[in-house]
Specification:
The protein has 376 residues and is of the alpha+beta class. The chain has three domains: 126 residues, no CATH class; 116 residues, no CATH class; 124 residues. The chain is 48% helix and 15% strand. The protein is built from 17 helices and 13 strands. The strands form four sheets. It has a five-stranded mixed beta sheet with strand order 9-10-11-12-13. α16 links the parallel β12 and β13. α8 runs antiparallel to α11. The longest helix is centred in the first third of the chain and has 24 residues. The site of zinc ion has 7 residues, from loops.
Length: 376
Amino acid sequence: MDLAFLEKAFALIAKGLIEKEQLLQKEPTRYPYSKELQHGINMFLTASIQVGKVGGNVFEWADEASFLRQFITRPIPEWFLEWSPDVVRELNLEDQPFYGYEAFARRRNENIYIPSSECYEFLDTQDKDIISGTDERVLYEKMFLLGQDAYCRLRRYLIEHPIITIDEKRMMRVELADDRMGREAFEFAYEEITEESFRCPYCGWTMTRGKYGFNCHSPHCTDIVPELTDNMKLDISSGMFRLKKGIMRYFAQPGKLELAIADFCEKKKLSWTLWPYMDKFDVEIRFSDGEVWEIDAKAYRNPITLRTKIQNDNGFPVGDYTRGYFVVPSEYTLGQRNYTAVVNKALKQQTNVKCITLRTLKSEISQKEAKILAAD
Ligand SMILES: [Zn+2]
């Protein structure tokens, strides 16, 4: 049994679920069929047979509908319940990057399933070619052509403005009049809102009514947001624009944490820089004693996603810093107290780098400042 084969199976299943969701948004009346999902299903079942899980039921699950009914709303570890415990141990499944995930989808009705945030996060740990050509990649490529200052200004603007009016768009165009590449990146990031939409009270992007309930960029928003009211409704009559979905999800939403860190540094009157060295880090802090800390803000709810991303990137970027931190939103650790411990397993080689919450970062900064004061 090849573990890479199994991981690919999960990647195709996750990708297929999201593809089905997109097809359903486009054509709600047609059954959304995804070749990749079926491919992933075949691979998972093949793996099950290879490890000796033979018998009638493997073949009963070979068609998409029965497979989804059997597996897709169950946490990933439960997919392996019928595998022999010896095999699970030998393959060290518990430590595999696909294992520690909640269900990839929720059932919406008879045979329609919505992919979960876990599904999106897992897919984000997969090969670049699985996500290449997406809006967020194209935007990054355009923005890397900008100079450091223009890059920072535009990046902050996009994070702070998930929705803009036509007047705001005009103003930004004027501001970017002398910067053709900046204007190009800006124009690319937004699309016109053409259907009835509400402002999502959680993330500030749009909520739209689909055939099966409301949709935002993340299933997480629809899970936690209560009733939408009329005063959240957007007046699109004179033209409104929103970030493209992938840009909201992978670019703007995680950026809020970066800005929260920068705001804290500003409040503390520290010397700080956002996205230094063309985005090698998210925030750099220079203390008055000369010490430099580099920070990479990460907004993955599942610690295994973050650990896998770190492993794929070979750890924290090297540089001339005393301490490096991967910082996650404090609320992500509420339901999973071992969050940072899971991630820190991957950082044993880099003794000056740690994963901590925003709350811990704030207290480490305050302690550092107190030390500098005491030494003065
Ligand atoms: Zn939202």
